[in-house]
Every structure is written in structure tokens, then in C-alpha cells.
Amino acid sequence: MAGRRSITIIGGGVIGLAAAYALVREGHGVTLIERREDIGQEASFANGGQLSYHYVSPLADAGVARDALGWLLRPHAPISLRLRADPHQWRWLLGFLGACNRRTNRKNAAILLDLALSGQAALQTWRAAGLDDFLWRRPGKLVLYRNPSKFRKAAHAVTDPERQRTLSPAECTAIEPAFASLQSRLAGGIFSPEDEVGDCFLFCTALHKALAAEPDFRLVRGQAELRPGPGDRCALAVDGRPFEADLVILAAGIASRALARPLGIDLPLYGLKGYSLTTRPQPGILPSVSVTDYDNRVVYAGLGDRLRVAAMVDIGAEDTVPAPRRLAALRALVAETLPGAFGGGEDAPWAGLRPATPTGVPVIGRTRYANLLLNVGHGALGFTLSVGSALRLKQIVAGADARAIG
Ligand SMILES: Cc1cc2nc3c(=O)[nH]c(=O)nc-3n(C[C@H](O)[C@H](O)[C@H](O)COP(=O)(O)OP(=O)(O)OC[C@H]3O[C@@H](n4cnc5c(N)ncnc54)[C@H](O)[C@@H]3O)c2cc1C
């Protein structure tokens, strides 16, 4: 194939694996470097499972800073803030506050929508090409609003009424009867019938299985490091030993910031800690559509016979240990919203760090190093944006006039 490259991707999460799959399909040779024993063990492991193609509004929006101040005083706050003596955290927070206005939110939402929808179409091609099942369904997504003014604002922002329907409380619970007990407390909802769900870890596994069958792919287990190299190139080492690489793609989630620092690249990434629970609900309680309880920022997705619930944005928590206090708050919120969700059994608590930029827009594109591309910062939407980001990167590798993002 003309223009065939030998590409090394750092990071075996959903972003690195989707990029590897897109590039191998294009005829490139791909080496994926992953430091863990298995792929998909970090942020991509037990996320909310929503392929939220039509609802991509970044967290940074008008009124969020004011809401956050109110939330900080609530025990079940969807956002918590622990200020640290860390200039990077302050810079990130300032950038976030700077993006908390309607105009910036709309502009960034349009970028994310474009990226998401291109990926939605391509995912169907990939599935048709024989990717293993990852509990994928297209049940639609229902965003429930309790606060009337937030609902009015959301309804006003709907630009495509064919793809996003504004619903009364009764229409919401008709679409998703599992939430019937909430009807009297609802102001309304927005339903996106074309949105999907899937298990992100199983998607990673399916991509890896398909890649492993390709002669042009190899997985190398080891810790990657980057340093300035000769001329305008960067040099890669794995487990301390030099590693030959024609073109490197950095896709290492939140670790990308530390990896890029020796190169003098200051990535605007901050880890936003979030939680999930995976339950086997009582009969009749498993929601069929995917649901977001907007006011509490809790998402619900039925994955096979399990319910995946994900929530919480903890700013300033740098570990991935599920904190008992936050788990208790999440369990209480879920029990109040969807009685029977726990079915009396295990709920497999998990926490991960969303690799977030202040604006919510990922960084995809070239760097000042001729042999280094970035695919980082997918925040709360990495599963949704993984395929679209891979396509954008594929165009950049091809030298096409692809717009860099972020
Ligand atoms: C609670 C929660 C709920 C979420 N819900 C959703 C949702 O419903 N829908 C959605 O679209 N998104 C969701 N997300 C976001 C999504 O999970 C992330 O954006 C996505 O997983 C990021 O993928 P990634 O590949 O960039 O990072 P990761 O999955 O973290 O992968 C990075 C990989 O790089 C490896 N690595 C790091 N450093 C090195 C190194 N030096 N050498 C070699 N390998 C290295 C790591 O081991 C890891 O495997 C959620 C996230 C959280 C935390």
C-alpha cells in the first residue's frame, strides 16, 4: 500500500485501541504499547456505558460554576472540589471557569457532535466487519430534568427536533417505565432515539481480538517514556530501552500529561474522578433506554442483564480508590431514584479518572515533533468519541487536510 506507515500507539484504553483498529484497517502497521497486564484496565474499564452521540454538551456551561457552589454544600453533591497546592489544578480550574458560558459551550458542543456522529456511522461498519459483541444496543437516551428552568434551557438548546424530542413527565415515564416513581418530581425530558449503549471494556476486548488476528498488529507490554530526540523528532523508550518508532501516537489517558512533560508539551489534562456501580436489579427494574438524571448527574445503562450506574465528578482526587463516603452517597441517590436497582446483591464499585480538558474538547493532532501525534483528553465522553477520534487521526496520518482538534 502506498503511504503505509509503521505506527506506535502508547496506551491500550478505548482511545488507543480504536485508533489502532482504524489504522490497521487502513493498511498501516501498528504496535500498541500498554503498561498493564491487560488492555482497558483504567478509565475505559467500567464507565457509564453510554454512547451518547447526540448529547455531548461539555460540563463547562453557563451556570455550572454557580450550581457547583451550591452542590459543594450538599452531602450527595455530583461535583466535589478539593483544592490543592498545585498550580496545574488552578490553571485547569481557571480554564474551566473561562469555558463556563453559553457561547463557548455551544461552540465546543458542535465540535464534539461532529466528532461523535462521524464515529457512530463508522462503528456500524466496524460491527458489520465482524467485531465481537460488546452488549451494544440502540435503545435511545433519555435525559430527565427535575428543575423546570434547567429543563426549559435544555429544551431551548435542541437544534434538531427529529433527533432530540422534548417530552412531558408522563411521556418520559411512558418511554422508560422503570423511572415511574419519579414522574411527579420531573419537569420533563429530552429523548435522543438514536443514542446507543455498550460495555466499554468488552468493546476494548473486541477491538483487541480483531487486531490480534491481523499480521500487521502487535501488542507490547511495557512502560513507555518519551524524550526529545534528534532534530525535530521525539525518542521513545519502553521499560528503559530505546524503541524504534517511525510515528508515535500518544493515547495514554490521564498519564499522557506526565508522558508529554519531558518533551516540553504541557497538556491541559486533569483527572476528574468518577464512580460506577454494576448491579443486577430486581425484575422489571432494568431500564431499557439509557437514562441521565441531569440534576444529580447520574447515568444509567442496561448492559445485558446488568445495570451500570455512573456518576460523580471529584476534582482534586488523584487516586482511583472508591471513597466509601462517595459510594454511600451514590448508593443513596440510586436507591431514591430507582428503587429496586440493587436487587439485594453485589454492586461492583469502581472508580476511574476521566482525562479531561477544561473545555471538554479532546486534543487530536500534530505536535512540534514531526513523529508525534496526540489523541488525548476525551474526558467524560471517551467511549462515545473513540471511533470519531480514530477516524480524525487516520486522516491526519494520511496527510489529508484534516482539522486538528483542541
Ligand atoms: C465514572 C466514569 C463514567 C464514564 N462514563 C462514560 C460514558 O458513559 N460514555 C462515554 O463515552 N465515556 C464515559 N467515560 C469516559 C471514558 O471512560 C474515558 O474518556 C475513556 O475511557 C478514556 O480512554 P483513554 O483510552 O484515553 O484512557 P484509559 O482508558 O485510561 O487508557 C489509557 C491507557 O494507557 C496506558 N498507559 C498509561 N501510561 C502508559 C505508559 N507510560 N506506557 C504504556 N501504557 C500506558 C494505561 O495503562 C491505560 O491502559 C466515563 C469515565 C468515568 C471515569
UniProtKB/TrEMBL annotation:
Taxonomic superkingdom: Bacteria
Protein name: FAD-dependent oxidoreductase
A cellular-component GO term for this protein: cytoplasm
Gene Ontology biological process terms, A to Z: D-alanine catabolic process
Keywords of the record: Oxidoreductase
A Pfam family hit: DAO
Record bears the keyword Oxidoreductase: yes
InterPro entries registered for this protein in UniProt: FAD-dep_OxRdtase (IPR006076), FAD/NAD-bd_sf (IPR036188)
GO molecular-function term, one example from the UniProt record: D-amino-acid dehydrogenase activity
SUPFAM superfamilies given in the database record: FAD-linked reductases, C-terminal domain (SSF54373), Nucleotide-binding domain (SSF51971)
Similarity comment: Belongs to the DadA oxidoreductase family.
Domain (FAD dependent oxidoreductase) ranges: 7-392
